């Protein structure tokens, strides 16, 4: 289905609300602007009366009207008459102003504080006008209920919302009846601003919305929704702009998004609840919008257990200075869901930090589950973008590769890595240029095994999803500066005189990529066991084995930093003050995010506050120890985060997802997701008893094996 066909299909699903052309000034119901009084009762009486009498438009005059939660009723339009019209929602004593009602919270049904504007099982409703809806949220009200962790090294801060969030998720997974999922007073699940549940013919038009407690617009299981010319401004945690959930027929146009999270996020239920409901989010048209600020532009998921299909996003401008992803697909093996028939086209992304297009099945819970998602028929065409860790990042599980992918007429520059293509099946890649290089082309070029004089090595390369015949050209050097052509073919006997080696891989179009430089070991020097692993690191330019330390000796932070240097950007270094001399390598490792400078307790996996059991041989730091702590050891949970930071794939989300292992309860929240991912990618493993042993120091021998697997993954 092309863009025109898809557009016509979607627009057939959308109708405007049928509201009688009758106007009711709010003053008729005793509403007085700028009075300072909370006028919830008068406003609700007006809405109820207008609906009961057949419907019409409730006119809110210029000035500020304070209110608590309002419930829209069928055939009622709430209209902000002019630009000076402000509907201000009170932010104190939520138990008095926001009664507990049936709602959805992060795509999970429950009973909670009422959304600020709420509707359930209504039809033909609207909020319109040039005025402002002010939710009253700030860092002293609503937003302080939640501390969002984005950095895996962050210290924990009070997160009042966390336990309630976990409880609701458990209720979902366990199938607890919705009527028993009661929150509200005594709990800390922030309400959404406008939430319409099971409504039809909904119009949101013209107004400015600001300072939302949580998600700003959240229609749930609605049919025929139009969001037109709305300005959304709210920068608290999880302040998504517009999150249609399991809706059919959605038109989002001419809006300005200035948010603290995703601008638009399409959803269809979470985990068990979402799968049982089985209601997709479908027939969505997103056009002519400005994404002025926000981490994500258009996100599909992560709550998408019911599936997402037939989505067209065209003629949008992504100008956010904080834009991580313009288009993002995010799910995991617990949420599942099928994404299909999605087109992103004719758009510009000015400043991208993550990737213009990003899709992963490893969001939060990752592979920990049995409900595998699917990505099918995704088309990206006619886009121009600048900046990012990647140009295009799209990965899937082995069992469910991406199918029907089309990349056409794409120009992206200024990225660190052009593309991550994991499990693409027969993609169409046409006229794609990233950093001046055309795709498809060879990638992931590396030499397998240890190059040893007189022995044979083999090269490996891949392309973006399809099978391709490559030509291999080998070069050798005695000094690592002057290079000589030395042979061709996938396998190559290393000459006796070579000290350095590399390989260039070329496709049939003449596109070529060259591996990193590898050191060559003298004949007879190849070892076994952990010495073999250290020799592999040495050949990759990642340092020699620490001398005088046995295999079961403890790896220090400074030793680890020196080995990580080839994976680091030397320009990124920590400039903080130290009470103790530290190597440049350690400063660079911290600057690149491989290690953290903060002091952490033993519960967080560090040695700054004393010694754990079983580590009596480890010296205790005194009170003047450096924040970088060069001599401190590295625990296994820290090593998991090091591995994920160093592998070349930036997984920013540092949620509290726990890995599947017998001792998961011992893993610190901030490390949980990275431990789970390090296990999934095979960087680390469980012991025979199914334990991860998160707080045990990493040994020299163990570190060598982990770092080699990371280097394999990174193509070094």
Number of strands: 42
What global shape is seen? elongated
Q: Which regions have little confidence, pLDDT < 50, spanning 5+ residues?
A: 600-626
Helix content: 10-25%
Q: Structural class of the secondary elements?
A: alpha/beta
What CATH architecture of the largest domain would you give?
3 Solenoid
Query: How many helical stretches?
Result: 11
Q: Termini distance?
A: 41 Å
CATH C-level name of the largest domain: Mainly Beta
Short overview:
By secondary structure, the chain is an alpha/beta fold. The chain is built from eleven helices and 42 strands.
SSE map:
Layout: H1 3-11, E1 23-25, H2 40-52, E2 56-60, E3 63-67, E4 70-71, E5 76-80, E6 85-89, H3 94-97, E7 100-105, E8 108-113, E9 117-120, E10 123-129, E11 132-134, H4 162-174, E12 194-197, E13 200-205, E14 208-210, E15 217-220, E16 223-228, E17 231-234, E18 248-253, E19 256-259, E20 262-266, H5 271-277, E21 281-287, E22 290-293, E23 296-301, E24 308-314, E25 317-318, E26 325-330, E27 338-349, E28 355-360, E29 374-395, E30 402-403, E31 406-422, E32 424-425, E33 428-434, E34 437-439, E35 443-448, E36 456-462, E37 471-477, E38 484-488, E39 491-493, E40 500-506, E41 512-514, E42 518-519, H6 529-539, H7 557-564, H8 584-591, H9 636-646, H10 669-680, H11 700-714
Structure write-up:
The two termini are 41 Å apart. The chain contains eleven helices and 42 strands. It has three domains: 3-323, Pectate Lyase C-like (3 Solenoid); 443-519, Sandwich (Immunoglobulin-like), CATH 2.60.40.10; 542-612 and 620-714, no CATH class. By secondary structure, it is of the alpha/beta class. The longest helix has 15 residues, at 700-714. A hairpin with a 7-residue loop joins strand 35 (443-448) and strand 36.
């Amino acid at each position: 289905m092309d863009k025109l066909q898809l557009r016509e299909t979607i627009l057939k699903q959308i109708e405007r609300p049928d509201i009688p052309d009758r106007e009711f000034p709010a003053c008729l119901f005793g509403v007085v602007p700028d009075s300072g009084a909370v006028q919830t009762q008068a406003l609700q009486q007006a809405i109820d009366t207008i609906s009961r009498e057949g419907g019409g438009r409730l006119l809110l005059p210029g000035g500020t009207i304070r209110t608590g939660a309002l419930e829209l009723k069928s055939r009622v339009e709430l209209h902000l008459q002019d630009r000076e019209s402000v509907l201000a929602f009170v932010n104190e004593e939520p138990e008095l102003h926001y009664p507990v009602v049936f709602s959805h919270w992060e795509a999970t049904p429950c009973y909670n504080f009422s959304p600020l504007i709420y509707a359930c099982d209504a039809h033909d409703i609207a909020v319109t006008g040039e005025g402002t809806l002010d939710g009253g949220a700030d860092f002293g009200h609503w937003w302080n209920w939640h501390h969002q962790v984005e950095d895996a090294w962050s210290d924990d801060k009070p997160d009042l919302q966390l336990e309630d969030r976990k409880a609701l998720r458990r209720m979902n997974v366990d199938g607890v009846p919705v009527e028993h999922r009661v929150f509200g007073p005594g709990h800390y699940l922030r309400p959404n601003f406008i939430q319409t549940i099971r409504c039809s013919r909904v119009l949101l038009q013209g107004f400015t919305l600001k300072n939302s407690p949580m998600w700003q617009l959240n229609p749930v299981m609605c049919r025929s929704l139009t969001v037109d010319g709305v300005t959304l401004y709210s920068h608290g945690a999880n302040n998504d702009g517009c999150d249609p959930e399991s809706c059919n027929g959605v038109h989002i146009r001419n809006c300005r998004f200035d948010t603290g999270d995703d601008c638009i996020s399409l959803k269809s239920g979470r985990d068990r609840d979402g799968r049982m409901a089985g209601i997709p989010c479908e027939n969505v048209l997103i056009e002519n919008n400005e994404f002025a600020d926000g981490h994500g532009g258009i996100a599909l998921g992560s709550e998408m257990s019911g599936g997402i299909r037939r989505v067209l996003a065209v003629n949008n401008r992504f100008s956010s200075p904080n834009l991580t992803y313009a288009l993002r697909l995010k799910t995991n093996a617990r949420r599942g869901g099928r994404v299909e028939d999605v087109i992103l086209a004719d758009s510009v992304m000015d400043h991208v930090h993550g990737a213009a297009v990003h899709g992963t099945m490893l969001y939060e819970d990752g592979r920990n589950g049995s409900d595998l998602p699917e990505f099918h028929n995704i088309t990206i065409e006619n886009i121009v973008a600048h900046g990012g860790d990647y140009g295009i990042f799209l990965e899937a599980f082995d069992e469910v590769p991406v199918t029907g992918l089309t990349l056409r007429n794409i120009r992206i520059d200024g990225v660190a890595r052009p593309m991550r293509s994991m499990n693409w099946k027969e993609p169409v890649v046409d006229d794609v240029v990233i950093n001046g290089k055309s795709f498809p082309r060879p990638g992931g070029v590396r030499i397998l095994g240890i190059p040893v004089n007189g022995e044979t090595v083999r090269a490996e390369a891949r392309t973006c999803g399809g099978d391709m015949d490559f030509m291999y050209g080998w070069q050798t050097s005695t000094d690592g500066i002057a290079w000589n052509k030395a042979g061709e073919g996938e396998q190559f006997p290393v000459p006796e005189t070579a000290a350095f080696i590399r390989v260039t891989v070329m496709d049939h179009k003449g596109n070529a990529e060259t591996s990193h430089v590898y050191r060559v070991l003298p004949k007879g020097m190849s070892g076994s066991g952990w010495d073999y692993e250290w020799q592999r690191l040495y050949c990759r330019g990642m340092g020699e084995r620490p001398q005088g330390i046995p295999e079961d000796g403890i790896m220090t932070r400074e030793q680890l930093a020196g080995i990580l240097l080839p994976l680091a950007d030397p320009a990124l270094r920590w400039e903080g003050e130290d009470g103790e001399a530290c190597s440049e390598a350690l400063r660079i490792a911290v600057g690149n995010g491989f290690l953290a400078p903060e002091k952490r307790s033993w519960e967080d996996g560090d040695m700054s506050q004393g010694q754990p059991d079983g580590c009596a041989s480890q010296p205790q730091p005194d009170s003047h120890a450096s924040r970088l702590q060069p001599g401190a050891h590295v625990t296994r949970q820290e090593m998991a985060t090091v591995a994920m930071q160093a592998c070349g794939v930036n997984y920013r989300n540092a949620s509290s997802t726990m890995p599947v292992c017998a001792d998961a309860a011992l893993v610190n929240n901030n490390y949980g997701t990275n431990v789970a991912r390090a296990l999934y990618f095979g960087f680390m493993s469980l012991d025979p008893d199914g334990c991860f042993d998160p707080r045990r120091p990493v040994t020299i021998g163990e570190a060598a094996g982990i770092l080699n697997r990371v280097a394999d993954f990174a193509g070094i």
